[in-house]
Amino acid sequence: MSTSNEHAKEQDNGLPLDMTIFGGMGDLAMRKLLPALYMAFLHGNLPASTRILSTGRQDYDRAAYLAFVEEHSRSFISAANFNEKSWAGFLDLLVYVRLDVSAAPVFDTLKDASREGAQRVFYLATAPSLFTTICDRLAATGLVDANARVVLEKPLGRDLASAVEINEAVGKHFAESQIYRIDHYLGKETVQNLMVLRFGNSILEPLWRAPNIASVQITVAEEVGVGSRAGFYDSAGAMRDMVQNHLMQLLCIVAMEPPTSLSPDAVRDEKLKVIRSLRRMTLADIARDTVRGQYSRGVSGNQEVKGYHEESNVPADSHTETFVALRAHIDTWRWSKVPFYLRTGKRMQRRSSKIVIEFANPPFPLFPETPGGVANRLVIELQPEEAIKLQLFAKQPGSGMQMQQVALNLDLQSAFQQRRAEAYERLLIDVVRGRLTHFMRRDELEAAWEWVEPIINGWETLNEKPHAYAAGSWGPAESFALLARDGFGWVE
């Protein structure tokens, strides 16, 4: 694919910016998008002539809308970054557009509020079921031109067919170079640092393959439950909500081959190859190599919390998984026979996202007292801390040759003194500047569904209830057995 147009768009085109947020009164807009845009404004990363248009069904005038923003969004900006004068300047950028997306046959109110000749960015922070309607009506109202960009929030469909349908519908009006499928994990500093870690350090590249690497673990653990998202979550589950997008993207960056350049398509071509190299699971594989769990009542944060079935809007007989662990294989020379263990869950012991590269043990145990037979590990912590740790062995002081594990730590917070932007801020700036590298391409998304969907269908065929695990734990015992039979264990 040619990337010349994408390179051109990375330059400031000098146009005023009109960013429209569909679902502009929603939770995502208030908690993430507006605070991120405020931070971009505060640090001079928005064009001088920017307006942010928020759509909503409420019959608000501008004063009522700004009061709503004060109440629901301001608290998500840290005190260290809040400045009254800057906040007032940011509020001047905001425009409220009353619009019922599902009812309005045309978007005349939005057209009237938009500026001719502006760089238009449409952020679809709505249910995916509205994406087609919004794009059709934007085009019918004459708001889509060659400079327009559209941002699609996850989840993009609930299966391959619905993802293809959405992509086809959006693609009628927007070229692929205008479509930004957002996954906020790709905006995290440590995730982006993975590219530099892998391809900017010659010491690691010769080791980054079989047989030097024995296994790879990717964990995205959440301490919170489903909360107010229970209605949506029960129709999705952890596989659709987390594995198909967040964990799959992390897997791709860990396993991809070096791209020919850092251009968007060069990077995304290599990620696509990883997904297409994932070994498809048979029903027997699914039964053996996947674990589904569902949290029950337990203790989290020193408080007793509800089980999943006790949450509001969750059916009493729901079999929706809140936890998934699985073993995957990438059928390439680099990763032959190296298991990839993926794990995600809600109401786990603590919030933690990390990647663990476990290196193979030496072929001959010269030091038989190695503690627990633990190998060297590279631990990449994504949240809540951002750090890279290389776990090695050193001799304990004293006589004899007893070994002890030690770590070479890179604390990214202390290593770099400049401010570190949050994921949404970084990705929104990328959208404004036309950078597509950290967004999913259509074929990449659909290939991910092609791998995930047979697993979901296999669970339905097996018709087994998810394994229960207590809230505040690290998941069901079966997930530990999944690794133990290969001689490994989850790194907590």
3D structure, described in words:
With 492 residues, this protein is an alpha/beta fold. It is built from 15 helices and 17 strands. The strands form 3 sheets. It has a 9-stranded mixed β-sheet with strand order 16-15-14-13-7-12-11-8-17, sandwiched between helices. Strand 4 (119-124), helix 6 and strand 5 form a beta-alpha-beta unit. The chain is globular. Residues 1-11 have low confidence and may be disordered.
What topology emerges from the helices and strands here?
Elements: H1 4-9, E1 17-22, H2 27-42, E2 50-56, H3 62-72, H4 84-91, E3 94-98, H5 108-113, E4 119-124, H6 131-140, E5 149-152, H7 160-171, E6 179-181, H8 189-199, E7 213-221, H9 230-255, H10 264-277, H11 283-289, E8 290-296, E9 298-300, E10 303-305, E11 323-329, E12 339-345, E13 352-359, E14 377-383, E15 387-395, E16 403-411, H12 412-415, H13 423-433, H14 442-462, E17 467-470, H15 477-484
Parallel strand pairs: 1-2, 1-4, 2-3, 4-5, 5-6, 7-12, 8-17
Antiparallel strand pairs: 7-13, 8-11, 9-10, 11-12, 13-14, 14-15, 15-16
Helix pairs in contact: 2-13, 7-14, 9-10, 9-14, 10-14
Concise structural overview:
The chain has 492 residues and is α/β, with parallel strands linked by helices. The chain has 15 helices and 17 strands.
Tally of DSSP β-strands: 17
Order of adjacent strands in the largest pleated sheet:
16-15-14-13-7-12-11-8-17
Q: For this entry, what is the oligomeric state of its chains?
A: single chain
Mean pLDDT: 90
Low-pLDDT sequence parts: 1-11
Number of helices: 15
* Most strands sheet: 9 strands, mixed
Task: Find the structural class using helix and strand composition.
Answer: alpha/beta
The fraction of residues in strands falls at 15-25%
Separation, N- and C-terminal Cα atoms: 41 Å
Based on CA atoms alone, the radius of gyration comes out at: 24 Å
Helix content: 25-40%
Which geometry do the CA atoms define? globular
